């Protein structure tokens, strides 16, 4: 605002007998201030707010102030958000009679101005005296989740109450129409946004946002656990890609002593196993005898099994003859060191921190299967030429805490990542670093200090694979994904990923887990060496070493961490963090053809506004419909969460991308545009029929 205008406004105030009444008269008789942006009315109001601080004698009190407060309340429901705080301050509405304010908000609510009633309640801090369910229900029906979040943000007791209400709505047998029926004529009503699936997502988002105990929401948690059980049974009995030990570990930790989940487990066992095997697993997983049907209880009595678990089937066990099909560690078993004490770790440090060293780095954590909270690293793998160190991170951190030297591990890791004389190799390093920060908060600035890092995820798409074979040929005959696929392209055999979904927090680790963890880190060394020796045969430039190793200067915008099994990979997940060079040429929005899964309709609409060719599933469509459309029309699938695991196996490499379902459509769209290197121009916006 020009100095001349400010001076003119202030002269106007000085010439008024009652500037507060004068401002109200101006606002009541003008419509200029009701639009978006900074109007003349806005500048006059904010200037008066400053002027009053310099002239406190102008401030009204008593009966006159009450009359002004009554008038300003009539304006507040119409004014833009940027005028609320100045007007509340000028007319001291926080000192007004609370019952009078509540009555005014109630009047707005009864008129159907739900958003305005909620925002005014937030500004005047009226929430403790209101019914959270009554205030938030119409906002949720209008998909105004951001207003709901603001409404409960400062009140932990209201956060808990809201989550308990949402959880009640997710109860099996609860009729959601009982909630929606009174609001059928509601403006902006979005019934497709109000179902158990979206409510469940909202519950997890709020639990994470406000850091609340998941025990507040038993119905939603049980349903999420049930989806996890279904996923585990699919991996074990349909895909046959999960070992028996892994499967049993996860099933037991998922079900625990929850009687409802034990009943669901029993149904799944009866569906997937023959009677004798189902009885054996029911016994192993601790399903109470009174839940068993008579036929299964009888078989259980006849088993007379010892305490150890016998295999229900050996059909999918890995045989020695089959191991020749997978990448094998080229070092002896005694060169894999599992470290649990600081004394053992010292020898590792001395070797790893040598100038000129090349280190393969990987991390493992227990899969969270979509539950609340960020994964915490359970194992840190450091591979050097000829040996691998496996650091038991939880045990080392506990020991450092007990000895009062918690900074030990932080200093070592920070020095490793920031030392320009040591080359660090990884695959999806940013995801690993995010989990490392969740495990050790003192490492939050590590990503800003990265030097000499090589994220092989960033060059994965540049690699042409086996000489003489095109991507298309490999895509048709290769079921491998991510790092395993890169290992196959460069070294000839894929990784054996059957231990990927292990419970990495359980001790002792099984021998298969130790070998898997060591292989995951050591293969990075072999890939790097092979690519540096012969880059041309893989379609890479001859100056590979110079282009790969570089400084990391800018920290990317943090993203919600994915499960380890959903780690960013070229089969669809975002590639972020210490990138070395872009593997995609920029493309216009019209060149990107996508199909959005049914939980991402907001993202689909946003991308379509930007000119992207978007096809969207209907709310009732099965997720698998996305794969059919992608294959028929040559589209990329955009999905989220567990469906990603299923869909990515049904389309070609790089044809399925998982977005962060906890973010809003705009952030999701930016994630997609960045990943596919889409450059939007002004002419692209609204270039497609909406």
TrEMBL record:
Polar residues composition-biased segments: 564-576
Coiled coil region boundaries: none
GO biological process: nucleobase-containing compound metabolic process
Assigned keywords, A-Z: Exonuclease, Hydrolase, Nuclease
Chain positions covered by the region annotation Disordered: 543-584
InterPro entries tied to this protein: 3'-5'_exonuclease_dom, Exonuclease_MUT-7-like, Mut-7_DEDDy_dom, Mut7-C_RNAse_dom, RNaseH-like_sf, RNaseH_sf
Residue span(s) of domain 3'-5' exonuclease: 336-536
One MF term in the entry's GO annotations: 3'-5' exonuclease activity
This protein's record includes keyword Nuclease: yes
Pfam families: DNA_pol_A_exo1 (PF01612), Mut7-C (PF01927)
Listed Basic residues bias regions: 551-562
Name of the protein: MUT7 Exonuclease
